[in-house]
């Protein structure tokens, strides 16, 4: 049966709301039944109407929505909420939903601050409900294959990890021109203490740890606010130390004029390297120490089963961003189904980012900022 | 409101059925309410169950399904059917559904033969219902931009059109090993008189005509059956004449070992050329006569509005095959909505392939076969 | 010791003359000592001066130059001539030079016509001197690796060969604007009966035969003169039959606006395919039937020795067109050295195109033209 | 007239010696007349013989060679020396040659240490002779176009500079296996205090400054010795500050298993970005803030004349590493010719790296090492 869920955020002008909805629909595992799409009640209603929802399940606040849902019968009531609001409205609805017994899927970063993230952590531990965090890039099949190749020892001991996330869309003072996305993402009150480092740096850091299986231990960072008048960093770079002696470099910038969203990761070990880039997401380059580089392709028969489980189409039929997102939703739905059967033991046995990744993301932001302010070269990344 | 539809075909082992379902779900415009997923009644039922459908709307034959639907109230009854069966089961359900007043979306090629296609044509003309044909590649935004650039005169008068569709999956005698897809696609009784020429050649021909806006007028073709024991052609190539003096080359082969699905089109005019390849679907290369080649990218602000209307995400967030398919479904849904308001005047005002393209596709298959058998260089492509 | 040679052609306005000179210099195996760079005596002299040659060895006609050289002592006298004139001045100097006992390296196509080529053939057979033909693309190391992979059976029995040579530089009526290169290449008196088919089609045909090891047996061609006023074809395409049941497609066009010189070859066999493109000359893609595609790279340790012998630099240090040319010159110099030691048995034991390839090239041009004029689909390619 | 020169280094087992020779020959501007190819006299002689040199001009020490040359008549005597030895034999022959009045072209880095570089500087200033330094990547035409685009304001004020030089060839302890190149490059006595930072880091730093026109002002670096037993760093990364508020990242590693020589530079300004990568050297990507990215190509008509002056072939005919090297040699020859006419005013009016770049390179190595040892984040890059 489809999982009934409600959305918090995702009203007019939202980018990520529609992505979440499509991701949930794509594999047919979810049914959107209600929402608090906007704190503007009429905007919320109109989004609900567009989506063909019953008016009585659409509200102008997440509190009202959750209150109404909890009063419904178990067969009608939502099982989960999807939180797609700006960062400052992550923790409150997540906490409230968990308290009421709902599962939560939430856009990254987990919260406005590490402290808020800790509050969510308490509730997850207390309620035992499922929490998923949409670090999209971890949803791509060839990123999963990359992780598998590292884990299987194909690269040998890991030495170097280079991750980058160059964007150009904030090259101008867009937030002064009424651009809604730029507005909240560059506003500390809504985005948190990190600008680029929170918005895209957390993706890069997560990707590096996800693929390499190694945690960042120390950071030497510089954050810049390149565009005059901007309140938050729009450019970040860092040298990184990882567990087991690996080291690397992270770049996350929103002022690389002309760049779109070309997230890229390269990992090198004793025996070979690998490379994945978001602009060509269905390929993964494996470069052995000796011998020709190999182009692993999504949908082929030679991939690991955990990769194949995250594709829908035979090789040569491109899947993209929504599909990657849907892979996270599908993992979330499996965990909920197991939960309902009493079999949910925590996110470790699934392949979607969850609480731990969310906590690390918030700590990453704070460590990057602390390092950037410090004259010392290295700042410990501790949680 | 979502359009209620039922699927014919798409049971266990189907590739394209799930693609159609996801494409219909993706933008939230369709609700799958029933099906005749297989002529094996229990297989049909079990697919229906997996999809969470009411058992009473799932049947073992399209006839039974259509009979049952037509008896339902207007508010419950399906509005459309999606036909995703092998080619020999295209015409009968399409004709029956049209007769009963349902709109039809159908996988390509339109029918088993041109004669069958003519029968469908009669019903469409008689009933005035909407018919859409899923020539997927025409659903890609950058293919639409290519068509727009040609139409806008950016390339000047068109001179050359090169289109190719190389696949490698039929390099071995797969149909002898129980491969279901290979089974029907190489069987004249289920696939029709064309093998590669029908399965992928029709895509290539449609793409060439769609992008260039020019019709093929003469064909000089060779069809080969490369793999021993195979009943149909698995390899085709042709020199082409187009309207207005343009000429070109078409390649459609299923024995290009190692190739996936790398459909590619290049069009050259007096002022420049353009190139699109399916393995990098969100880019379109425009090559002016003088000056640097330009990489047009999906999701950017400089594209034509008809292109932008077929993307969901900002530049740099890859969309793929399902999204291209969904663009056809979305066009189909708009036409149905207009139909229900009494505003449907025919497919010309929408951007999805329909009857004419289907008829041309069947004629293309027959002309390719006739040319291949002929000692004469050129065979007229007439309908 | 360096081989002393003289150049015929290659004066002011020549493109290929300087390429030949650099190719000869690159590996240090040749010393240019004289020339008949132009039939305009003062232009020939001034080119000689620029090149630092003794005035007495520079002449206004190849006859005068050859006469003068033959009178010099064996230690001073040239050993070879390099003929880089337009096609109509290929046969006469080649024949005269061979008669006088000089070795000959000559730009393709071998002559103005097959008949002329036959005359050269007679002299080569009579004199036993070395003749090399600069089909450049056969000089690229990764083309040699491609040939090796086919020969070694890595692709299994060959089924399909697609070769293309798209250029855009003749998209306009350039020969009317005083462009020297366009001038002679579109003039039947200087270029011969073939335009695009001779200028670039012969390269494509040679490449197809060189890599596949299979000869073209039948041709179904269309030649077009796309640009108004042009005297020769500027666009050609053909379906091809090869020995051993292989088939393919050849494209050679000079009106593909925006294209540079993107020669490309793809060969598919029972076990895999390979792909090489001139715009990325140091890579060769090998695509096994199953398993990831592999990127073979020039300069690596895993290539065949006959490939490695044609590179100068370690992997990752790009070599290009002049280097490919130089590989032919180096083969030519080895043959001459062997000749002088009495060990030259014919071109078969070297890796450079020679008489046979030249004869086939001329026959290819004539067969393409004959096929293009014929209503019959297939024209035999016989010599 | 050709410039007569002699080579120091470049005997058996040398990689770069043959590159220098080919680069000098390629455009016909130099004549190699002698050498001290090895300190092993017989090895030097045998290299001389292979190169067809007179035995009396080939020596077992650079001192003997220079002494002998200086005694020859002005018309016979060399005009320049090319120094291609390991770093510890750069300064002594350079100083001696300058003292004797010869011009010097020298492989990078300029010397074993900044102090040695300062000694060379004194002699250059004292003698006024021409000194060229072969920072190859600055010799590529599309790198020159990149520099031109920045200088012309096409990118606006520069904000970010990312440069990287990933290699994999030192992933294993190659110097323990008798590999000659690895031997000296990882030996502090022959390579200097920097390993990867000197061997390839200097190339990256030079490229960044050359393209951007901005100097590095502060460095935050980490150098690693990844392979056990190695005596020098084989991996380096740094955050960079440039003049005028730009910042960036530099990566230079020799343990990126599977990488060849993929030097890459990206520069972003207020109005756009550009990207060049060594594996595709004849293309330069220009990415405007809005509008499609453009692929600038070597050999086209729309490039700046200073770019075109550094290409030999029309667009689509690849040039490579030797050609880039030759561009430096050709600049060097022009300066020498001007010198001989009394017109040489210093390297500023030519386009080849010289003393200043060499001094900065040595200071870069020392600053990288100092920063790597420091706990402070930033170390000033001062000279």
Shape of chain A: globular
Structurally, how many domains make up the residues of chain A? 2
Unreliably modeled segments of chain A: none
Strand order of the largest sheet of chain A: 13-12-11-10-6-9-8-7-14
Helix content of chain A: 25-40%
What is the N-to-C succession of helices and strands of chain A? EHEHHEHEHEHEHHHEEEEEEEHHHE
Radius of gyration of chain A: 20 Å
Largest binding interface between chains:
A-D, 44 and 44 residues
Keywords:
alpha/beta; Rossmann fold; 383 residues; 14 strands; homotetramer; 12 helices; 9-stranded mixed beta sheet; 5-stranded parallel beta sheet; 21% strand; Dihydrodipicolinate Reductase, domain 2; 2 domains
Topology:
Four copies of one chain form a homotetramer.
Chain A: E1 3-8, H1 16-26, E2 30-36, H2 41-50, H3 62-70, E3 80-83, H4 91-99, E4 103-106, H5 114-127, E5 131-133, H6 141-151, E6 158-166, H7 180-185, H8 188-191, H9 196-212, E7 216-224, E8 235-242, E9 247-253, E10 264-269, E11 272-277, E12 283-288, E13 293-297, H10 305-308, H11 321-340, H12 355-373, E14 379-380
Parallel strand pairs in A: 1-2, 1-3, 3-4, 4-5, 6-9
Antiparallel strand pairs in A: 6-10, 7-8, 7-14, 8-9, 10-11, 11-12, 12-13
Helix pairs in contact in A: 1-11, 4-5, 5-12, 6-9, 9-12
